[in-house]
Amino acid sequence: MNILGINFSHDAAVVLISDGKLLYAVEEEKISRVKQDFGWPRHSVSEVHRATGISPDAIDVIAFGSYYFKEIGKNEIKFRFLRKKSYKLLEVIDRILHYFGLSPSTVSSNNKILFPQMLRKMGYTNAKIEFYDHHLCHAYSANYTAPFLPDLVITCDGHGNGSSFNFYRNSPDTGLECIVAHDHLASIGQFYSSVTKLLGFRPNRHEGKITGLAAYGKPTELVEKFYDLFYYQNDKLRRFPAERTLEYWEQWDMSHKLSLKDKINLKSSESATGRQYGMNSLILLHHLEQVCESYSKEDVAYACQVVAEKVILNEIKRVCKKFYENKKIKVGLAGGVFANVRINQKIYELDFVENIFIQPAMGDSGLALGAAIISDIAEKGKRFDDAPYKFEHTYFGIDYSDKVEEALQDVSCEFFIERMQDTACQVAEKLAENAIIGFWHGPMEWGPRALGSRSIMLNTFDKSVNKTLNDRLNRTEFMPFAPVVLDFMAKEYFPCYDRKVPAADYMTITYDTNPKYKDILQAVVHVDGTARPQVITREKNPLYYDVLYEFYKITGCGALVNTSFNAHEEPIVSTPQVALSALQAGRIDYLVMDNLLISKKQ
Predict the structure, then answer these.
(1) pLDDT class for 249, splitting at 50, 70, 90?
(2) Using one digit for the tens of pLDDT, what is the confidence trace for 124-177?
(3) In CATH, which of 3.30.70.260, 3.30.1330.60, 3.10.450.50, 3.30.420.40 is domain 146-358?
(4) Average pLDDT for residues 268-295, to the nearest whole number?
(5) Among 220, 411, 433, 562, which is least packed by CB within 10 angstroms?
(6) Is residue 489 a contact partner of residue 553, using CB atoms and an 8 Å limit?
(7) Is the predicted pLDDT of residue 358 greater than 70, yes or no?
(8) Alpha-carbon distance values, 171 to 79, 83, 377, 383, 403 (Å)
């Protein structure tokens, strides 16, 4: 039984489960080199077939991580599959005609037929096609990959299939059961994205910048103004302007703000939910522009972060009081909001939360994983105890190690290449000498964090290296770098760390740093005293661990800066050629590829 899980929207991704085993999980952007690439993940699907030798006609199920794809128009489906400009143009024309009342709808009743037609042309002649609920896919991705059985699974994002903030618990009879659901009109993710846009960053991409910037802000009355946007109505969480009716939104006169493009997109949305969500976002942004006019960017970011934390924590407390009587529980999280590592820390610090796991690809790429798991469980009737998806690592990407020699042959005249006899020791020595090293090794990581397969490493002793590296990578200066930490030093550096808690394995949570080590760790401690560690064990990545251990033996420091191996607005590096181009551009001093130490000729 071969199952492809697919995310067909932004953050396109493919997951392969074969005979019940998770073999590959790959984001399209890492192969195509297009940030947050969308639609059919053609490059990564092709690479998965190449790596496994499993042909398209051997795929039994293709599982999509949203019901929405049943509804979108023919031209949009073709564009998402084939990425041809002609189909995009047809889609735009269709929307414009619909806006002026010349086209009945962008929705076609034949869409269910169109999906099989497109897939058969691509060789998937034997595959069933399944569509699953967006938030259920998020929930399954966290529940079944956690190393423990979560008592409660929480999903939170902008919105998907009408929901934005849901709670699930395990039922012995039915699997995951949704016990509380909040629709798109309560969206905390949309609130956070609107603030992101207000501050001049790109929504649905740069929310992490707001989290970083918030540490530089201070409490103001804006916190209460933001918090007043959220309220409860008939036991449901709501957020301004949820009380407005769809008719009000459609008649709302915002001609000085609403572009023709916005008007067309809103009116031609495939559903009332889509129109509601779009107009909700526009009204919210207009309101925030007025409310935030006299505040600094830092204070706006601070208020946004504090209110997002408060709303989420209050709802978790409310749900747990009702269903668990505040007993100790284990929690699983997924959805884009839980890319916010400060929120995850606050959840873990709740006195009734015993353990926490954040699915490492918590954003929409994770829908591919959830859809594949749901489909496999439906086919095999598995339950948590016998489901073999539990993460021990995230190295599920493509391994291009067999391409290294070929890549080097093409550019050998441009680089010095040394074959190291003791890789860990020699790399550690370079790091102790303040070198900036690109570490390229084995299969790629799953998720947005570099975890020692595609990482840039340097020492943590001098905070000025942040500016040096930010300048080389064209990254924002206020964003903190994160550390990779030896397992036996983690508790020393971060007193609240617990080895039983897997969140720090994947750099998905922050901890308060022991003040005693803020100097030696200064390059990875944020201005608020927190750090976002990856705690590494030798079992998960032996070479990566050995480099850090050798560095510890030289310096007495059990941590290194670990940041993703890419420049700003680029995906994490994938192939040897992409890694070599980073060295060629001067972003790093050395490139380590397995046992090869590569440097640029002057």
Answers:
(1) low
(2) 999 999 999 999 999 999 999 999 999 999 999 999 999 999 999 988 777 799
(3) 3.30.420.40
(4) 83
(5) 433
(6) no
(7) yes
(8) 40, 41, 14, 10, 46
